[in-house]
Amino acid sequence: MSGQEKTSTQAGEPIRAPRHFPGFDGNWARKELRPYLVRHLERVPADTDLRIYSSSREGLLPQDEYYGGHNRINDGEYGVVPECHFV
User: Fold this and answer.
1) C-alpha to C-alpha distances, 71 to 20, 47, 49, nearest whole angstrom
2) Does residue 67 have a pLDDT over 70?
3) Cβ(60)–Cβ(78) under 8 Å?
4) What angle do CA 2, 86, 61 make, to 5 degrees?
5) Rounded to 5, what percent of the chain is helix, strand, coil?
């Protein structure tokens, strides 16, 4: 992987460490992500004018592109991803 070097964890598992952090010494502490996450439960109303996106391995894609030119029916079940948040 470009821009990364191999290091290992205390358990000996290989990890990839970015080289572009000044002063990085290869000692990363593993931490569980769960305590830092906040669930967002807002839903898009069925009558929205917002474009609906689908999460995929390629990233967020407009739903009509993801489903080959078709849109799924929005019954108000799609979640809202606020600005500066991630899926």
Assistant:
1) 41, 14, 13
2) yes
3) no
4) 85
5) 10, 25, 70
